[in-house]
TrEMBL record:
Entry keyword set: FAD, Flavoprotein, NAD, Nucleotide-binding, Oxidoreductase
Record keyword Cell membrane present: no
Residues annotated as binding NAD(+): 227-234, 314
Signal peptide location: none
Organism: Cellulomonas carbonis T26
InterPro entries xref list: FAD/NAD-bd_sf, FAD/NAD-binding_dom, FAD/NAD-linked_Rdtase_dimer_sf, Pyr_nuc-diS_OxRdtase, Pyr_nucl-diS_OxRdtase_dimer
Self-association state and partner proteins as the record states: Homotetramer.
GO MF term list: flavin adenine dinucleotide binding; NAD(P)H dehydrogenase (quinone) activity
UniProt catalytic activity: a quinone + NADPH + H(+) = a quinol + NADP(+); a quinone + NADH + H(+) = a quinol + NAD(+)
Protein name, UniProt field: NAD(P)H dehydrogenase (quinone)
Family annotation (SUPFAM superfamilies): FAD/NAD(P)-binding domain, FAD/NAD-linked reductases, dimerisation (C-terminal) domain
Length: 507
């Protein structure tokens, strides 16, 4: 959680706000009485068109504000154009390949003959076609957002914005012109970009960041993925399912070090069973391009070769050149913008949302931060951001979905809790679908039985976790969940079943 900023004055309308002319009086006849003046319309300027920015713009517009949104590269931001939408579209294709691999177990045989030098399967992927679809879908989603904003009356300016004082934004437009926008409220939602290392600079051809993968026409013969966090694990799993050889270089003991330990163990086991080479406790020191591939040199001197290398070593906030210091906006040592739970910065009238704040790098959190910021700035009812009710998902196969407190955090703070785990292989619906890997795990308070958190590891876990999200956010007990009906047979039946095992275990 980022540091709070107590005692900041509420943003108020500035002298530069425009007034809305009064409406003519009703009735059929003219009136000599002047129309009653209306309150000045607040001007909201949003810098950045990602989820935090465009959601904030929509909320502000519906609240009656005049809204100008400044975006440099395309509406939707990285989430739509280079990150969430493209990667999950690619992963969706990989998921179908994983399902197809289960076909023989389900009694389905392919009549196709695999190529002599190809994988031992009757289906192959055309990566060029996959990536063209990825890019087209991302562009279509971006256009849908643009259309929606314009239909709602948001002014969209193509260009780069920077603060010139807390309530003034200078915009360098794409055509070369410059304009200054006086604002009552400013929201910064500039996102983040892939972290680059001097010893492994991406070239867009052999050494790649995750934003550059979608230009590949052919499937990498052997992909070396550096970094075993969420991004690295997702792409490593996807490219292995698509048919590439994959080496995953992890500096930690296990993949996905930030996730539930049991869940990460399942994913790493699945990776190895599918033929992925996982190098644990191996830190990459440098990456260099060769005539026909790459060489990744590890800190212990070992050299890993491949045809391509994906650098997935985190991201850095896009906060340089925003005029933060001159406007009085404080940042952390990592360069993230400090915000409190209603998205206020240290400068009057300036809010921030999304990855530039470092709160939690999820599109859903960015959007919520933006909505909360506008509600607070424009005087609506506000519920401060609560990270304990955020649901998140890792799009591996199987997926990992989590909500609420983690087992690690409960142990660290000393909360008395009870927990239960049920393996997915026991679920009848999972058996029918040939699903073997995964589980449902629930944490409940040892005295009250209130659900504190949960983990779902399963195909489409991101869909299955919603009942647990409701339980955590509404403070339901494990008995409340256990006594709710589920369809039989269904994967969600495991959620109710694991809750039933907690009955009478609270003390």
């Amino acid at each position: 959680m980022t540091a709070t900023t107590p005692g900041i004055a509420e943003p108020g309308p500035s002298s530069t706000s425009t007034s809305t002319p009064g409406a003519a009086p009703g009735g059929t006849g003219a009136s000599d009485a002047p129309a009653a003046p209306t309150a000045p319309t607040a001007h909201v300027v949003v810098v950045g068109g990602g989820p935090g920015g465009y959601e904030a713009a929509l909320v502000a517009r519906r609240a009656g504000a005049r809204v100008t949104l400044v975006e440099r590269t395309g509406l939707g931001g990285a989430a739509v154009l280079t990150d969430v939408v493209p990667s999950k579209t690619l992963i969706a294709t990989a998921e179908w390949m994983t399902i197809a691999d289960r076909a023989p177990e389900l009694g389905i045989r392919s009549t196709a003959v695999p190529p002599p030098d190809g994988p031992a399967r009757g289906h192959v992927v055309d990566l060029g076609a996959v990536n063209r679809r990825v890019v087209e879908l991302a562009a279509a989603q971006s256009q849908d957002i643009a259309t929606r904003l314009r239909d709602e009356g948001v002014e969209v300016v193509v260009g780069s914005g920077r603060l010139d004082g807390p309530q003034r934004v200078v915009v360098d437009e794409a055509g070369g012109a410059s304009r200054t926008l006086e604002a009552d409220v400013v929201l910064l939602a500039t996102g983040a970009t892939p972290r680059e290392l001097p010893e492994a600079m991406p070239d867009g051809e052999r050494i790649l960041s995750w934003t550059q993968l979608y230009g590949l026409e052919d499937l990498p013969r052997r992909l070396v993925v550096v970094g075993s966090g969420v991004t690295g694990a997702e792409f490593a799993g996807a490219y292995r399912s698509l048919g590439a050889e994959v080496v995953l270089v992890s500096s930690r003991d296990h993949v996905l070090p930030g996730e539930d330990a049991d869940a990460a163990e399942v994913i790493e086991q699945v990776f190895r069973e599918r033929g992925m080479e996982v190098l644990s406790r191996s830190r990459a020191a440098s990456v260099r391009r060769t005539d026909d591939g790459v060489e990744v040199t590890l800190a212990d001197g070992r050299v890993v070769t491949g045809s391509h290398c994906l650098m997935a070593v985190g991201s850095v906030p896009s906060t340089q050149g925003l005029g933060l210091e001159s406007a009085g906006v404080r940042t952390t040592r990592s360069g993230h913008i400090e915000v409190d739970r209603v998205s206020r910065t240290s400068a009057r009238g300036v809010y921030a949302a999304g990855d530039c704040t470092g709160v939690l790098p999820l599109a859903s959190v960015a959007a919520m931060q933006g909505r909360i910021a506008m509600a607070h700035a424009l005087g609506d009812a506000v519920v401060p951001l609560d990270l304990q009710v955020v649901a998140s998902n890792v799009f591996t196969a199987p997926e990992i979905a989590t909500v609420g407190a983690s087992q690690r955090s409960l142990d660290e703070v000393g909360v008395r809790y009870v927990t239960s785990r049920l393996d997915l292989a026991r679920n009848p619906r999972a058996k029918m679908l040939g699903m073997k890997d995964g589980f449902v795990k629930l944490f409940a308070h040892a005295t009250t039985g209130i659900v504190l958190g949960g983990v779902v590891v399963a195909p489409r876990a991101g869909e299955l976790v919603f009942p647990l999200t409701l339980a955590v956010s509404q403070r339901l007990t494990a008995d409340d969940v256990a006594q709710s009906f589920t369809v039989y047979p269904s994967l969600s039946g495991s959620i109710a079943e694991v809750a039933r095992t907690l009955h009478n275990r609270a003390v």
